Amino acid sequence: MKLIGKIMTILLILLITAALLIASIGWYVSEPGYEGPVSEHFNGKTFENPGEVPEKSFMDVMKWYLQRDQGEWVPISESDVTFAPKPAENVTDGMTITYVNHSTFLIQVAGVNILTDPVWSDRVSPVSFAGPKRFRPAGIRFEDLPRIDLIVISHNHYDHLDIETLKKINKAYEPRVIAPLGVGRMLNSNGINKVFELNWWEDKVIDSDITVHAVQAQHFSARGLFDRDKTFWNGYVIETPAGDVYFAGDTGYGPFFTEIGQRFPDIKVGLIPIGAYKPRWFMKPMHVNPEEAIQVHKDVGAEISFGMHFGTFPLADDGMKDPENDFSAAMRLQENRGVNFKLLTEGDSFRIR
Fold first, then answer.
1. Are 24 and 218 in contact (CB under 8 A)?
2. Which DSSP symbol is given to 345?
3. How many CA atoms lie within 13 A of 349 on its CB side?
4. What per-residue confidence (pLDDT) applies to 54?
5. Which of 10, 88, 151, 261 has its Cβ near the most Cβ atoms within 10 Å?
6. Cβ distance 157 to 234 under 8 Å?
7. Measuring CA to CA, which residue among 297, 295, 310 is closest to residue 345?
8. Percent helix, strand and coil across the chain, each to the nearest 5
9. Element holding 215 (H helix, E strand)
10. CA–CA distance from 331 to each of 73, 190, 249, 304 (Å)?
11. What's the CA gap between 236 and 211, in Å, rounded?
């Protein structure tokens, strides 16, 4: 009995130590949040999605984690892919959109080079030795990037705000950065100073030809255990002389997509997520599935859309090929026939004249 008591005491000490270690790491990686007046979507401490959007609790997270049934992921090495040729230094006639990986696109228009949620790291995690790892290389080598003039950040999750990539780009080019409310404090603390924070439906004029509009999304934010929803989350409409580009960021489905389409009736290109949607009981409030992504394309009235947020990092239970397969199945439905929505391979470019 004494031996059993000692073993139980040791196990209890180990569990407490592990919990304290996790809490300490969670506190260390948590970032300062937004400080501002109470508003429609900010209660003075945290941001909120409007409407009846179910919040997932810590117990929900643990339930999902303990019951995970992740599909298959097969790593693709650099030797197995053909990288895109080095992009043009700038595009002044029309617009070129290149799919880099995950939610990263290079948009070249009116002599301005724009990156969305740039991620070149091997893991999207607070540490380099654990967390979701890259399963396929970016379509453009980092060293082949042209001068970067502007970056848009949708929210502060590691797979969208990759601080190491941002610091490298900032060191080389010092681009302007558009970010949601509260994100600027973290960027500033890492030496990234040309940051402009936008609330939903606010805009920032970049030059005489380009204006970035922040639009509604349905998501959440956090980098650690103690900063959940302390910064905001945005989608964007980038107004350009070659047509408007809608970048959805990360989002669940909601009626606000129709409002985006009504406010911006000239959306030429949609960049819309299709992955990280399983299991639906857990992921539905924060991530659209492929069928919902097609509906987003219809709601915003884009002339053509491209899928993103799939096949690079295992973030949910969908397997590496599930988003592509489910997207293909959804596109075969009668109501989606003729819909101009495509999936690109990393490094593929689309030219708009």
1. no
2. P
3. 16
4. 82
5. 151
6. no
7. 310
8. 25, 20, 55
9. strand 211-215
10. 23, 43, 22, 14
11. 10
* Alpha carbons 105 and 126: distance in angstroms, whole number: 23
Tokens 């539905």, residue located: 284
Question: CA angle at residue 173 from 223 to 126, to 5 degrees?
Answer: 15
Q: Which of 263, 221, 261, 269 is nearest to 242 (CA)?
A: 269
φ, ψ dihedrals at 167, nearest 5°: -65, -40
- 178 forms beta bridges with 152, 196
Q: How confident is the model at residue 12 (pLDDT cuts 50, 70, 90)?
A: low
Measured in degrees and rounded to the nearest 5, phi and psi for residue 204 equal -135, 120
| Rg of the chain over all Cα atoms, to the nearest angstrom | 21
* Per-residue DSSP letter, 214: E
Query: Of 153, 115, 136, which is closest to residue 310 (Cα–Cα)?
Result: 136
Answer yes or no: is pLDDT of 273 > 80. Answer: yes
DSSP string, 28-60: HH---------BTTB-SS-B--SSS-PPPPHHH
Q: In this predicted model, what pLDDT tens digit does every residue of 192-218 receive, in sequence order? A: 999 999 999 999 999 889 999 999 999
Per-residue model confidence (pLDDT) at position 80 = 87
Angle at 298 between CA 99 and CA 339, to 5 degrees: 70
Tokens of 174: 């010092």
Three-state SS for 353?
coil
Contact by Cβ (8 Å): 159, 102:
yes
- Name the least confident of 66-75, 183-192, 213-222: 66-75
Residue given tokens 């080389």 in the structure block? 172
Q: Cα(340)–Cα(303) distance, rounded to whole angstroms? A: 7
Residues 132-154, buried b or exposed e (16+ Cβ, 10 A)?
Answer: bbbebbbbbeeeebbebbbbbbb
Query: Quick one: pLDDT at residue 1?
Result: 56
Pick the residue with more confidence: 68 or 259?
Answer: 259
